[in-house]
Amino acid sequence: MEQGRLLRHALQWVRRKVRALLLGGAAALLIAATDAPLPPDQAAMKAHVAFLADDALKGRQAGSPEHDVAAAYVAARMQEAGLTPAGDNGTWRQTVPLVAARPLEGTASLTRAGATQPLVAGTDFVGRASLTDADRTVEGEVVFAGYGVVDPTRGVDDYRGLDVNGRIVAVLYGGPPGLNSEVAAHYGNREVKAEIAGKRGAKGIVFIESAAIRATYDFPAIVEAWSGPSMNWTRPGQPRGDGAPQLAAISEAGAAKLFARSPVAWDRVRKADAAKKPVPTGALGVTARFAQRSEIVSLTSANIVGKLEGSDPALRNEYVVLTAHLDHIGVGEPVNGDAINNGAMDNAMGIASMLEAARAFRDAGAPPKRSLLFLAVTAEEEGLIGSDYYARFPTVPKGSIVADVNLDMPIMTYKFEDIIAYGADRSSIGPVLAKVASAEGLKLSPDPAPEESNFVRTDHYSFVKQGVPSVSIDAGWSGPGKAATKDFLDKHYHQPSDDMKLPFDWASARRFAMLNYKLARQLADGPRPTWNKGDFFGSLYGGTPSQ
Q1: Engineering a disulfide at 231: which of 362, 382, 413, 512 sits with its beta carbon 3.0 to 4.6 angstroms away?
Q2: If DSSP codes are grouped into helix, strand and coil, which group holds residue 191?
Q3: Backbone torsion region of residue 383, taken as left when φ is above 0, otherwise alpha when ψ lies between -120 and 50, otherwise beta
């Protein structure tokens, strides 16, 4: 019943879109007629992206009716590619229950030696919406815990000697100096910092503007980000994390007030942080009060899951997962009269690549030895929510997932000469991918921008945290790649201009999709992927390392 409803929904939508295009008149037809014809395989890629990035889908925001239409389209295309539904109860959909919150009024104050000083919203601090309490107030003594990192494998414990139980923890944005970029990105993640603080009994956590964050975002950008809605999945009795509530972000100006007359001098902290040296920590001798009103709503969205059954009786119950996020950021403020963030490159292109990889398996005839799951995840833009939900509560036995290959915003405006794979050097997937790439005349390059923390910002990270060797693949920066990537990020990323007017290179897009297909084939037919011996993430999250 669900499968039929989804397919009917998608087909009815396609018919309406065709009718609308026909009614658009001769001008639209003349424009279309000037488009150079594409080979069928490239035309298929373009058709997927064009449908998903159409204005009518209003940016595919998670939880919206338009995202449901996009999900129906993907399910229809999965069935066309010969996949079978692998969501809830034999359907294509895994329902993801969500809670969303929009921040309303927020205040903050500091009390020291009986004197209370207010912090200025938008200048000294910005509050974060609460997903659980419409009217939340948290008050407590403040303890500064440096970067908020605890890493026994490296002898790092920013909480050493600190009692934070029942107190508010203040930490710097980012990770401590001297760590591998991906490890630093992990410890710089706010969720990780909040979990570490929560496990030590902190009643809340605030994040202080640091040298690392200023190099990428100024405080007004942080205010803008924190002032938007928050979202997470919800499941009775199974919270996403045990982290301390994230109460606020604090600017340098706010930090100067927070540390004023404190045993820990802000000037020493600031200079040590800028010099990438260890920072002093300790109780600040001040009580902070953060009050936040939030508008909270419950909603649902869906991951779309298709399965290709493996051929080997001994391996078909193991799964290689291919992921790409379907959602984008919806409708925002108008830019040159256009308010719809279409998300053509981010990530209709990734979905198109995944769908065409599925179709390549169909066309090849012989299925791989292991089974494959093709997973279009929701709510990536809200914090990897859909992938985190699936990785924690998969529709197949959890231990049967052996690898994840993720596609997120491959920038297909140029003929790429190399590829990037976040996480490739951490497991046996890396050498397999390097061999596949070499056969295509491509090289596997290291992360060219580790300061962007892409390793923890894409959906493969959700599987990493469940102990699954995983990579996220992107086109590389060699040749024209760096300039093309910079142009897209500077002018089109999360903007209405990320639409079908971009100068797509459909031949490169097809090549990228087939690279994904060939990697999935090798992983499904080859030895079970393993973490490299002693790898940080393999050890941290309980994966099985190679011997």
Answers
A1: 382
A2: helix
A3: left
Residues 207, 105 within the same domain:
yes
Q: In this structure, which amino acid lies at residue 300? A: T
Out of 296, 331, 352, a domain closes at 296
Total structural domains within the chain: 2
Specify whether 290 is located in the same domain as 313: no
Q: What are the distances in angstroms from CA 268 to CA 144, 213, 256, 271, 277?
A: 13, 18, 11, 5, 11
Shared domain for 230 and 206, answered yes or no, is: yes
Q: 240: Cβ–Cβ under 8 A, 6 or more apart, which residues?
A: 232, 233, 388
Task: Identify whether residues 284 and 422 lie together within a single domain.
Answer: no
Which tens digits make up the pLDDT trace of 4-48? 444 455 545 554 553 443 343 333 333 333 467 899 999 999 999
268 within domain boundaries: yes
Which run of H or of E encompasses 359?
A: helix 349-364
Q: How far is CA 345 from the centre of its chain?
A: 15
Residue type, 38: L
Question: Rg (Cα) of the chain, in Å, rounded?
Answer: 24
Domain of 197, in residue numbers: 101-296
Could you give the C-alpha distances from 150 to 2, 154, 451, in angstroms and in order? Answer: 46, 9, 21
Dihedral of the alpha carbons of 175, 180, 185, 190, in degrees to the nearest 10: -40
Q: Are residues 320 and 414 in the same domain?
A: yes
Torsion angles phi and psi, residue 276, rounded to 5: 60, 45
Structure tokens at 85: 């539904």
The DSSP bridge partners found for residue 118 are: 109
Closest CA to 172 of 197, 201, 155: 197
Q: For residue 26, tell me if it sits in a domain.
A: no
Query: Taking the model in full, what pTM does it have?
Result: 0.91
Q: Residue 248: which of 173, 198, 195, 184 has the closest Cα?
A: 173
Of 351, 403, 335, 375, nearest to 543 by C-alpha is 403
By CB atoms closer than 10 A (0-12, 13-18, 19+), residue 287 is: middle
3-class secondary-structure state, position 144: strand
pLDDT in tens, 144-170: 999 999 988 788 899 999 999 999 999
